[in-house]
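Sample entry (310 residues):
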Amino acid sequence: MNVTTRQLQAFLAIARLGSFTRAADEIFVTQAGLSLMLKDFEAQVGARLFDRTTRSVRLTPAGESLLPTVRRMMADWESATSNVGRLAADAEQRVSLAATPLIASSVLPRWLQAFHDAHPAVRVSISDLDRRQILLGIEAGELDVGLGAFFRPATGIDRQLLSRFDMVLVRGKAKDASARRHGFETVRKVQWSALDDRDLVVLPNDNPIQKLVDAQLRALEITTRRTAALQNIQAIIAMVEAGHGVAALPGFVVPACARYDVTVHALVEPVVPIEFFAVSMKGRLKTALVSGLVDALGAHFRELAKQVGG
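Predicted structure, serialized as tokens:
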């Protein structure tokens, strides 16, 4: 049996109104179309459901027997579709967003406030995770969007470029006595060569950002002394503030650096950019809400990159 909801609607409309003409008008079909739907429905149930005369349309005993069941079926169907609709509408108002701890703590709060002011009905759930956890969450369908410097494409992951940030040098204001000897206490831009023979606080060797820094140091034949290797960029900034060395980091650290007694200088000759991405599950349909959120993030990060670059 291949009964359609339209056939059930037609049956109920005719039974309630007692008229093919009014039933056809109510469900927006022609009388001929209504008659065909009823004829097919009667063929599938194996019984005539209405007695039709020039003056009236009445249910047959078979129609009377079927009527309560059809009413329940349509009531259940309408309830189910209504619930699905509400769930879909609710889902479209929720977005799960993950970023590395530095971005989550120093960049996203201000952006989130502006986004909430513009979209008060949207709930953005934010998680602070490392890069590997972000990718795992995207792959598992637990996260809608992830943010980070994802250098290489990953299987099943879409990357959308948000902005590019140039590398910067972070140094302590009061504790870095060698800054005067190197002549960059107040200058805004510093050459990579100024790192030669300096104490350097770094990320782990396998971190993609650190690999980029190390490649640049090797290319310029710059020698540094590594005083600490830390997973957390904010811990690196704190170590720099305490006088344990300087750090070469992406420009998106600038908002976080404002909380510490450090200065930030653009690293030049050469300028080394790092690309910052929004990632999502490949093949997963992006809702208008998610697309709009990523666009808003892109605008925010591009503006931040402009500020960092001066």
